[in-house]
Amino acid sequence: MEEKNQQEKMAIVRQVELFENAFNKAKENGGMWLDNDGRKAPKLYLKPLQISAFNAIILGMHSDQNGYKTNQYTLFSEANTKEKEGVRMTKYVLKRLLYMVIVFLLVSLLMYSIYNLIPTDPARAQLEPMKTTLKPEEYEQRYQMLRQQMGLDDPLIVRYLRWIGFWPDVNGELNGMLQGNFGYSQIYKTDVANVLPSRMLNTIYINIFSTLVALAITIPLGIYCAVHKRSKSDNAVQVLSIVGYSIPVYIIALIFIWLFAVTLRWLPVFGMQTPGNNFTGFRAFLDKVYYMTLPVLVMTVGSLGGMTRYVRAAMIEALSMDYIRTARAKGLREKVVVYSHAWRNALLPVITVLIGWFISIFSGSLIIEQMFALNGMGQLYYQGLMNNDFELALAIQMFYVLIALVGQLITDLSYGIVDPRVRVNK
Fold it and tell me: pTM to 2 decimals?
């Protein structure tokens, strides 16, 4: 027995010696651990060494009441670790914001160059209504003056810098997109900034209902199908989801218009409110909901198939992992296994689609808004393109680019929240 205890003591002493050697190497190499081959290990700190009270007494080391060795050999304290993680996260976010600015500027230059390749003349379009009232000489004089005021004779790069807000205009002032000037709409004869807010609210109003309803259906349905894989209900949902995913949204819209508006006469076909109504308050809200029900229903049904299959596939993969079998072997309830263990791990691939859906709340649905005569961002963008109102179309396009970049950043940051394994370590 005494020989066995002596061997245990020697093993513990050997572990502490190895620990001390690693600690000294770490100090010599700038706070990084080295492995046996002299390579830097990935972790930047080591948690306190856990030993029993008996071993602490043998080695003459102080231990707290939980049996943890004091922070004598701790490379960094937990507080410093959290502080460093916060600093790394801040640096990561700032770096991503810098990348976003660079990508935004490059895409804006590309889009501005493409729109300027289209043979249009904003100065002539603005003077066209006055052509019949002006003499040819006077018309030409005003035309040349207007081109000079708009800077249309300047090089492309100068016009781009002026449009983005990095180059002064003819008055010597910075008056571009960065200063809040999104251009002048030839259709509405006003600044683009005055046209966007009302259309944006309509788009958000439509999309937020369809997104929330679709998520409330697809996530539970996908989880249910994954848990009851290859059952009759799962097979039926898979067939319906494939059919729904394969049918274009405008076909679904036509079917629903025929069913609910023409045959049953339950819902209106187009519009956003009852013509000539003077409703206020909650009555106006109900009237708007009544007119929005059919397009929201079409958008919801059109998005069910893809998301349901995506959630189902992610959950099936998560449920096949070894830790799920271990959790069930420990006697955990099935709901705990599915929702606390499997769903959280399955959420990592799903979160990209989920955030994409929420970001799409701000973007318009061109086909739906055209079919149901909804005054949203999609219809506004279509009108700008069809009427050569390129400053309006370009402003909307850059808004979509900004939304996409912000959505990508939120997606990357959400990975670390959902799965602690995906954290910023550098």
Answer: 0.71
